[in-house]
Amino acid sequence: MNKPCPRKPLDLTTLLKCFTIDLIQADWRLVVQKLRSQYQPELPPCLQGTTVRVELGDATTALDPADAHTINRAFPLTYGQPLAHFLRATAQVPDAQIITEHPTIRVGLVFCGRQSPSGHNVIWGLHDALKIHNSKSTLLGFLGGSEGLFAQKTLEITDDVLSTYKNQGGYDLLGRTKDQIRTMEQVNAALTACKDLKLDGLIIVGGVTSNTDAAQLAETFAAANCATKVVGVPVTLNGDLKNQFVETDVGFDTICKVNSQLISNVCTDALSAEKYYYFIRLMGRKASHVALECTLQSHPNMVILGEEVAASKLTLFDLTKQICDAVQARAEQDKNHGVILLPEGLIESIPEVYALLKEIHSLLRQGVLTDSISSQLSPWASALFNFLPDFIRKQLLLDPESDDSAQLSQIETEKLLAHLVETEINKRQKQGKYKGKKFNAVCHFFGYQARGSLPSKFDCDYAYVLGHICYHILAAGLNGYMATVTNLKNPVNKWRCGAAPITVGF
Amino acid sequence: MNKPCPRKPLDLTTLLKCFTIDLIQADWRLVVQKLRSQYQPELPPCLQGTTVRVELGDATTALDPADAHTINRAFPLTYGQPLAHFLRATAQVPDAQIITEHPTIRVGLVFCGRQSPSGHNVIWGLHDALKIHNSKSTLLGFLGGSEGLFAQKTLEITDDVLSTYKNQGGYDLLGRTKDQIRTMEQVNAALTACKDLKLDGLIIVGGVTSNTDAAQLAETFAAANCATKVVGVPVTLNGDLKNQFVETDVGFDTICKVNSQLISNVCTDALSAEKYYYFIRLMGRKASHVALECTLQSHPNMVILGEEVAASKLTLFDLTKQICDAVQARAEQDKNHGVILLPEGLIESIPEVYALLKEIHSLLRQGVLTDSISSQLSPWASALFNFLPDFIRKQLLLDPESDDSAQLSQIETEKLLAHLVETEINKRQKQGKYKGKKFNAVCHFFGYQARGSLPSKFDCDYAYVLGHICYHILAAGLNGYMATVTNLKNPVNKWRCGAAPITVGF
């Protein structure tokens, strides 16, 4: 900001000009970053002030009644609990109960799963809510994710500690490690930690896997008469933790905006050079939400969605043909460039590759060395494996992740498709069917560069509000719940805050 | 902007709050983009108004007197011309001449080389300057770069045509193709185009190669008594066209800022996950300027500069050792993560790889098929080639670019180094020397995603001013000059505008 705003009041035109100049300065990114770090997220009316009413609804059931029995058996103590709604103290709801007692409590928070922009604001919101209601309450953050929880490595969260992390991306205040709290050994370590640290509440920040673990922990803790209540928070940039109570997840909005901007840059690049096809792989494992939302925001020429590929059972051959047909049709309009998006999970959605991966992972689990796997595959899997280019073969042989999926971030599906398309276009060219310019592919993986980015205002607010809700869930004495906000497409003052038993989303 | 600013004047505090809210909205990127598209770049005082004085200095000589004779012989008509300075009409410089006549002229402009943010503003600046001095003058843009020039494919630039490209990234208004205008056939096609289209001036927008071509064209046109004056404009995101008259190039500022932001995101990611080493390859061929500037802006853990590697003759082995030593030292401090930057040109700076590439390119030029190259390399080159991983071997065998360099954007040097480091760290681990966690590398190429991005304010101003200068060079009747601005680190009102014979920078 090399033209600082004058200090005395000026007319609107001058001020507008002054701000416009600041905004279009070379350093506008720094201006935004600075303003963002000073931003105080909004709270919906129901959470403002120190008095919140909680209304408990009817008992809940699983989405699919067929599952109810199974889930009920697995979660006898935490299944079927009522929905909770948080309302203003003045709300005219006869059954709603005002929580008047706010004893000193101790709460622990752990980042599980992959980092997602604005995770830090969950901590901030929870910390503010704790201190507003009882300044002696304590918030402990576990250092290094679930491993920090097991090892009881904590950092006490204070305003000082938080100061440089408010509205900032990354999980670097606490760090994170493995995703899972699942084995008996891990669950017991978590139980011991909560008992040793005398925690009244344990907040688990993460996606589908982590919230499933949270539900399991809540049940186990209840069975063990542990006083610690477990609360889950929907934070995952993949945006795939969704049900009737969870409209979106913290981080998804930011990731889609940042990636859409980069994709738009690449679209401009494609139009400028007029000679490249860009194959861009985006985050998104089982769900292609990021790829779909980025498509809506940035208008690439083509997107391949994992769900469609799986539903229509499209093979590598089908996908190659679809892309080649589009490339050929564009060439006939004298367009020899384009942008194609795909999610990292696509590779597992292609039926024959999925089956091949299953065979490979099964052999790996049996301890077969990677060098010998090719010779032990079934004949058809072996034929497919040997058809694939060398670099993909190596990547398919990587050990699966803790959730049994392939190491999707390491598998360059965009390069595989680019390779297959190039081969097919060259063939069509020789046959005289393709008459465009030489096919050139440029491949990108937009995986890690958006994950640490500055969160959007929406994610700042959403995460901060969820942090507040965590406190009210604990104050209401609920266990095995997820913090929820609905009506998110409206401004913050219309947001509805609540809590749903985690098992209801299963 | 879901909270629009009130229309009537308010006090500063309210307004500040209002703007702060706008800025930190989810859509701040759109806000910036919209404001940027409405931005009118500044002009330094010397170029304001309709009267500009030109001062011609003494005859210039080549930087290195030893080269003077050679250059003079190659450019007998355009070497040794004086420097030109553009001054305000009121400037008290006795020898400066006021250009009073502004006849109707026709000017052509061509984008050469790779797209660079704010190239469009050169067109805008030139168009404005042309129309201010004579509303009947015409600006033609060549469609599709040098090939559009040869084929005389033009688009007349008007305010309407420009409206959506002002202050925008990419070269998509005109497009571009090959870099070079060099063979006799190409030079003659350019000459014919300029004669046929009755051009008074030809503006060549590009980097080192394109401005070298501009100097050659200027000489050829002068020798052929062609009335078209040739002017070069320093536009290259690599920032490597630098001499005493050219302080930086259009696009470099934007590219460094955008990439530094992405690198900072990755640094946050590294600190959050605490388990990855990120190897990030940046643009920059012969010069590592982008990598160096991004290092200064984003503070990664390590940067490898091509110039240092070449000067110290560091081998692949040396580089691997340097990185491994750093990884090991960090592990001893319990840090198992980091960010390492390198320029795409690094691979050609490593002495033994450079020699290998020379051999490969020589064999390719002799028509040897890629499959047979390995067997025809000299014994030491063959040994190195076979030592390298398969993916790099394939990439080294790609046809060289038009300027004889390797296809640097396609050679994944970051993956090669990550591979070599991983191998060495694993070895040290077995030997008990390395006691850190398992080494995990994530590789990125930040090549194309920044190229089409919104230009920084600096680049908007710089390109627009250079466009104006192009007009004044033509109005002064100069041929074979490059538009220059010095004193760039000061605000625009202190910028000094001039023109230097292109050959002076050789």
From TrEMBL, chains A, B:
GO biological process: one example: photosynthesis
Cofactor(s) the protein requires to work: Mg(2+)
A GO molecular function held by the record: ATP binding
Pfam families: PFK
Domain Phosphofructokinase span(s) in chain numbering: 107-471
Catalytic activity of the protein: beta-D-fructose 6-phosphate + diphosphate = beta-D-fructose 1,6-bisphosphate + phosphate + H(+)
InterPro entries membership: ATP_PFK, PfpB_PPi_PFK, Phosphofructokinase_dom, PKF_sf
GO cellular component: cytosol
Record keywords, A-Z: Allosteric enzyme, Cytoplasm, Glycolysis, Kinase, Magnesium, Metal-binding, Transferase
Domain of life: Eukaryota
The name this protein goes by in its record: Phosphofructokinase domain-containing protein
